[in-house]
Amino acid sequence: MNDAAKPDIFYPSEEVLNQANVNEYEEMYKYSVENREQFWAEQAETLNWFKKWDTVLDESNAPFYKWFDGGQINIVHNAVDRHLENANRNKMAIIWESEHGEVRNFSYNGLNREVCKFANVLRSMGVEKGDIVTIYMPQIPELVFAMLACAKIGAIHSVVYGGFSTEALASRIDDAHSRVLVTADGGWRRGKQIDLKSIANAAMERSPSIEVCICVKNNGLDVEMEPTRDFWLHDLFALPIASSKCETVPTDAEDPLFILYTSGTTGKPKGMLHTHGGYSVYTSTTHRMAFDIKPQDRWWCAADPGWITGHSYIVYGPLINGATIMLYEGAPNYPYPNRWWQIIENYGINILYTSPTAIRGLMRFGDRWPKKHDLSSLRLLGSVGEPINPEAWRWYHNVIGQDKCPIIDTWWQTETGGFMVCPLPITPLKPGSATKPFFGNELAVVDDDGEEVEVNEEGKLIIKNPWPGMARTIFKDDARYAELYWSQREDGSWRYLAGDSAKIDDDGYIWVIGRMDEVLKVSGYRLGTAEIESALVSHPKVSEAAAVGLPHELKGNAIHTYVILIDGVEPSKELMLELKTHVGNEMGKIATPEAVEFVEALPKTRSGKIMRRVLKARALGQDEGDLSTLEE
Ligand code: WT7
């Protein structure tokens, strides 16, 4: 890199340095990778265990690693119960505000009451340890209660993002064989009501496994209830079964806590499975260290609990650390583009953690909106989901962070459970780089043969070690998990393949460039081209379809699709719009294609695989690269 191209470096202020939870990186990093098990055992000691573990890390069946095996714990015992025994009992756990101005607060004591009642209700519906409950909800406190209630009784939750639609929900219910679905009448978005229950009804029709549907009344929509299947939560809460006392069940450290579906290279989403023990240790440690969590902090992760960011850093990590969490249901710019800044001022938020897309989206309305508000309570800012472009970084840093808040750019994945690469508040920052590995982790960039590339050279990002927060498997598909993510070296060691391309610079800073597979990041949301394609093909007039992601200034990726119609159907503007709506209805609004182009043929390999790379190059007017495998 020549000097002109060198990024600026931002150093932390005295104030940040003085209050850091971790005030030194290099030595502690060295210790953590040389004594990995010891390091993680020390972190695990900060949690409450029903029974201590026998082994910290069991590698005997790699890449199916076990952490803290033999130990007994329950994440809810740490996220809720233990706070009831100390001053946190009356501390605010959740502050919730909805788009239309409703506010509800819950102390840790109140949180416990709601979780206990919910857990008792689930039990009364026959939910037992190991059962999978699907949760499809807007961003309301009951979503958090439902997740914790499952965990408390040892059931497994599968949260499906509330922005997904019929087919996305149905296929996830089906894969999990859920008997119970928790949903709500509706949600709010940009002044409009989202009719969740009717989507849930349509999905339940497609997925016969559901026997019980518990529905939360959120916005009072008139919804269709099926009398023998559907129950209002408030009716159930009024019954004696919904007692506010419920014992937390001890679970084995390796017992499943949740599955969360994420997109990959095939049309079938992967249910990534996470466990009670390692995940508790990993989310709380990363959250505490990377975000310098203090007892008095008000923490706002402005993601949706329905994605891994919300699971790990709205719900579990912050609650284990006893923080006060902010939850907002609605659009960032409703009714005006100052909504978020107003929330920060109103509630005195100290740390804001969000995505580059959200930052770019709000930046476009100009400085005058944040400048109307006192943002001085902010101490740290965070970024996640995609690489942050330097322009957005600077705006976030200067205007929102008033030049004093370090930006914690965290690289991780649904699969990793928690931060893998991120700065600490004390780390000198380079805009656009997630900086250095978190403790215990060793990363590298390799070429196609698995050899490590030179400094500043691009290649595949890999992780060379297991970590407690790692997904244990793909639900019901161990073979696919091992094959997709892991490879064994000649010396017997294992490597985790992240699916991202990256570079490592002269200072050891990691620069993530983007996905190398058929995964798109649209406004930070992870979608698979295959899922979009199968939604298109499910339309009766479509014969074949291909989806690619093209760069988009605001969204990161925009979805462009190519469609071959069935014989005899003529392309038209109406059909184009119909197909866009169809994908939105099947998958969810976020998956609505930016463009639908009707074509006669698609570039394919001789074995019949669509060459999306060629479509992408053509759309961007770039060199199409090696075409030797293209069929005639
Ligand atoms: C993919 C994982 C992890 C929570 C949200 C996303 C991209 C994530 C960053 C970052 C550059 C990032 C990667 C990764 N990504 N964070 N800080 N810088 N890229 O989880 O939905 O499983 O997506 O998001 O491409 O592989 P996910």
UniProtKB/TrEMBL annotation:
Signal peptide extent: none
Any GO BP: acetyl-CoA biosynthetic process from acetate
Ranges where the AMP-dependent synthetase/ligase domain occurs: 87-471
Protein origin, superkingdom: Bacteria
UniProt keywords, alphabetically: Acetylation, ATP-binding, Ligase, Nucleotide-binding
Acetylation found in the keyword field: yes
UniProt EC number: 6.2.1.1
Domain AMP-binding enzyme C-terminal residues, every copy: 531-609
Residue stretches in coiled coil: none
PROSITE patterns: AMP_BINDING (PS00455)
Any one GO molecular function term: ATP binding
SUPFAM superfamilies: Acetyl-CoA synthetase-like
Gene Ontology cellular component terms for the protein in this record: cytosol
Positions of the Acetyl-coenzyme A synthetase N-terminal domain: 25-79
Family: Belongs to the ATP-dependent AMP-binding enzyme family.
PANTHER family with a match to the protein in the record: ACETYL-COENZYME A SYNTHETASE (PTHR24095), ACETYL-COENZYME A SYNTHETASE 1 (PTHR24095:SF14)
Name by which UniProt lists this protein: Acetate--CoA ligase
